[in-house]
Every structure is written in C-alpha cells, then in structure tokens.
Amino acid sequence: MEHAPTVPMTDTSADEGQRLRLLSYNIQAGIATPSFRHYLTGSWKHLLPHAKREQTLQRIAGMLHEFDIVGLQEADAGSLRTGDINLTEYLARNARFPYWSDQTNRNMGRIAQHSIGLLSRYRPRCVEGHRLPGPPGRGALCAHFDAGENDLVLIILHLALGRRARGLQLDYLREQTATYPHLIVMGDLNLLADSEQMSELIRSTSLRPPQPDLATFPSWKPRRSIDHILVSETLDVAGTRVLPLAVSDHLPLCMDVSLPPSVRLIAG
What single string gives the DSSP state of each residue in 51-84? Predict the structure, then answer.
C-alpha cells in the first residue's frame, strides 16, 4: 500500500450538509475524441502535446464547479504529452477544489504518467494509494472522510479490460471494503451494469445495484454502461445521470446522494 498525498490549496468551504454531488469521469488525458476514426488520426496526442488540450481541460473544469467530490480516470501526473502539467492538480485549481490527490499507476517516464485522481471540497482524513492485482498499471485511491459515527470511504478505480484480471481486482475490492458501513465506489470499471461480474459484486457487498440504462461509452454514440458510481445501502440516492459533455471518449456520470443523519462530513 502506498500513501498518496492529500494537497490542500485553499481554506475548505463551509459544510454543505447531508447532500453530496458526486461525479466520475474518464477524461482520456484531456484528449477530445468525437468519433471512432479519431482513435487513429489523433493517436499521436497520447504521446505529444497539442494546442487544444488546454481548451478541452477548461471545458471539463467549467463542468466540475457544481460537484462536491470528483473521481478522475485516465489523468496524467505530468509528462511530455501534457506539457508537464499534472491534470488532476490543473482541474482542481481551475474548478476551485480545495483538496486534490492522485496516484500514478503506469509510469512511462517522459512519455506518460497514467494516473487516477480525486478532487474534493471536503478535507479527507487520509488518502491511500493501492496497487491492484493482475497485470501492472492498475490502481485505486481510497479516501477516508471523518463523518461522525463512522468514516465515509470513497474508492476511485479504473479496472482492467480483461475478465480474469478484473475478477482479481473485484475480489480485492470486496476484501478491502468488507468492514466499511458507508462506502462509495466510482470509476471506469470496464464492467457492464447487467454483467455477471457486476451482479456478483452487488450480491457479495452492501453496494446498491447500478442503474442499467446509463450508457457512457463511446461518448459520440453511447451504448455501454461501463462507468459507475456505486454506494452502500446506508446512502440514499437522489438521482443519477449522464452528462452530455462529449470531449473525452467517455461521458461523465454524476449522482446526488444523501448521507444518513449520523454521518456528516467535516469541512476544514
């Protein structure tokens, strides 16, 4: 287990109470992909900087303002292709989040620093970085928020494409979260809402099943529900929706949740 830094940038905002606005987004390193052919014609953007990346990031930052906690996948911790800009930090600053944390899961030196990230308007008590089982390059961020009687635990993931490796990672997730009463799991799980692996995850944990009709991929013609926000049964879901911001090859997924009366996040 590694401990990822939690970075405060300004004084945290006042306590917003029981309602939380959550967002999960695979940002594809700030690369706009409006159609399948752009995977080919724009493949160089995964290696080299390009002029429109900042424009894409500004559009994402503008959308993030209304949320309390954001989980990012396919960020970059600063490499040649991003002009040495840490994308999680960039979005935190431009969307005015007081706290951010990230973890590099695949370090390709100057070429790319594949990472996942957390943006928060509440101060995490701690943020832990986990290496996931299976082929190297997959990880998780686990944030603990002091929340009254029990911690609220948030886990951000980007799971493997292969079924076997993903199964190992889901087993690890079940083991790590077995004792958490108040839990949020979000990310690009590469797992359909109605799949056998998703059904097994729901059966073996206290997580609520996902809404099956929220397709997020590909962004230009969404057909697959592989991005998810899963919450424990102690949290009430007030609404879940996909946002029509088609800049990455994924669409962002958001959820409003209400915490139980005994659970209040501590600001600052």
Answer: TTHHHHHHHHHHHHTT-SEEEEEEEESS-GGGTT
CB atoms within 10 A of CB 109: 8
Q: Dump pLDDT digits (tens) for 78-91.
A: 888 888 999 999 99
Whole-prediction pTM: 0.89
**Domain-located, residue 77:** yes
Name residue 116's beta-bridge partners.
103
Q: Is there a domain that residue 184 lies in?
A: yes
Residue keyed to tokens 């009709």: 213
Q: What is the DSSP letter of 90?
A: H
Contact call for residues 63 and 245 (beta carbons, < 8 A) = yes
Phi, psi of 115 (to 5 degrees): -145, 170
What are 88-110's pLDDT values in tens digits? 999 999 999 999 999 999 988 88
268 inside domain: no
The tens digit of pLDDT for each residue in 55-80 reads 899 999 999 999 999 999 999 998 88
Q: Is the peptide bond before 124 cis (omega within 30 degrees of 0)?
A: no
List Cβ neighbours of 170 (8 Å cut-off, separation of 6 or more): 159, 197, 200, 201
Domain that holds residue 127: 2-258
Query: Tokens standing for 138?
Result: 């997959």
What does the chain come to in residues? 268
Q: What are the Cα distances from residue 29, in Å, to 33, 181, 199, 203?
A: 11, 33, 30, 34
SS (H, E, C) 157-209: EECCCCHHHHHHHHHHHHHHHCCCCEEEEEEECCCCCCCHHHHHHHHCCCECC
